[in-house]
Design brief:
Blueprint: H1 2-24, H2 37-55, H3 66-79, H4 81-84, H5 93-96, H6 105-108, H7 113-122, H8 138-150, H9 156-173, H10 200-207, H11 214-230, E1 238-245, E2 248-255, H12 263-278, H13 283-289, H14 296-300, E3 307-314, E4 317-324, H15 327-344, E5 348-349
Parallel strand pairs: 1-5
Antiparallel strand pairs: 1-2, 2-4, 3-4
Length: 360
């Protein structure tokens, strides 16, 4: 009897001490200070056992399905790179500030497909992992699982090819999503899940005369045909130039030789898109390239002080200068440039053939 009373007294003291500890606010909850070792171990064990238990018995589909991989590539580029990186990315400012630090899936990949599906769908408490199942169907999430499974074997070039091709395949197979907003400058809906050349490397080869695949050529023709929907100048009489820089990039539109009459329309259009992009209105590129362009989601969500967009007159045209304050935004801008280069084909280049100077 005395033992039970003593045990009850100890339990009551422990509960009171625990309550006092919680109310005191002593425990640090800031993401810049790690858990105590014992706390981290308990949370890790709780999380791992819960995920394992809930994912048990789940039926895993064919993760080698090309359509699944293509959709997964497109969604990974749009949703996951800020936290989980991609081949060629060293780190991001978002990821550095998170605790616990999200795994680098470009290196780690996944060990268990069912558990990965459960994590992506339901998210994880006490981390920054959201429950994507609240806004995405199961097939989309399985696509992410399929893509992440292959991610560690990809080179940066292969990743760019896969995400560019995956985005266009998603547009082609989109069920009921309307990407038909108007105004701006550039993407359409054709399946390029098999285009190994639909990437930055491919745009360089186009400029040097290597023929694109039939599917990509068709897409480029469609993009060219949609130009007049949003651009007042002729694509046949002008040249787009997308130049990546350490701080962001420069987008130029130049009148080709003998077409100086295009310059006023070029300048008017680029002034318009600077105003739109500054307000984070990217309806123009969305209308031609689609709502899921690589990097577009990050650019649309960029705070006012994190991404600046400015205009300048230059000889034979005009330019838009983008400056990103974070590595993550710069990388997003570069992926966005790559997508436009690939879709414009011979209408665009990453290298300027004539020197562009400010207009006096």
């Amino acid at each position: 009897m005395h033992f039970l009373k003593a045990l009850l007294f100890v339990v009551i003291l422990a509960v009171l001490a625990g309550a006092a500890f919680v109310v005191s606010g002593i425990y640090p909850v800031g993401a810049d200070e790690p858990h105590w070792d014992v706390t981290a171990r308990v949370i890790d064990l709780l999380r791992d056992r819960s995920i394992e238990s809930h994912a048990r018995g789940m039926v895993v589909p064919n993760l080698d399905d090309p359509k699944l991989l293509a959709e997964g590539a497109e969604h990974y580029a749009a949703m996951c790179t800020g936290c989980h990186l991609a081949p060629g990315m060293q780190d991001s400012e978002l990821r550095v500030g998170l605790y616990p630090t999200p795994p680098n899936l470009a290196q780690a990949g996944i060990d268990d497909a069912a558990e990965a599906f459960w994590i992506i769908k339901h998210g994880v408490k006490l981390t920054a992992m959201p429950a994507w199942g609240k806004s995405h169907e199961d097939d989309t999430i399985w696509g992410l699982v399929a893509f992440v499974k292959k991610l560690p074997q990809m080179t940066p070039a292969q990743y760019q090819q896969a995400t560019s091709a995956g985005e266009h395949a998603h547009e082609h197979h989109d069920h009921g999503h309307d990407h038909g907003e108007t105004s701006g400058d550039e993407h359409a809906e054709h399946d390029h899940s098999g285009d190994a050349e639909h990437a930055h490397e491919h745009t360089d080869s186009d400029a040097h005369g290597t023929a694109p695949t039939a599917a990509l050529q068709q897409r480029q023709e469609d993009v060219h045909a949609r130009g007049p929907d949003v651009m007042p100048f002729s694509l046949d009489a002008t040249q787009h130039v997308f130049e990546k820089t350490p701080s962001g990039g420069t987008q130029r539109v130049l009148a080709r030789a003998g077409h100086a009459q295009q310059v006023p329309q070029i300048r008017a259009h680029l002034r318009d898109i600077v105003q739109a992009f500054t307000a984070r209105d990217f309806n123009g590129p969305t209308h031609i390239h689609g709502a899921d362009m690589p990097g577009l989601a990050e650019l649309k969500a960029a705070p006012a002080d994190a991404l600046s967009v400015t205009y300048r007159d230059i000889d034979n045209g005009a330019e838009v200068i983008y400056r990103a304050s974070t590595d993550m935004l710069r990388d997003a801008l570069h992926r966005w440039f790559d997508a436009q280069l690939a879709d414009h084909g011979n209408d665009a280049t990453a290298h300027e053939h004539t020197h562009a100077t400010p207009s006096s």
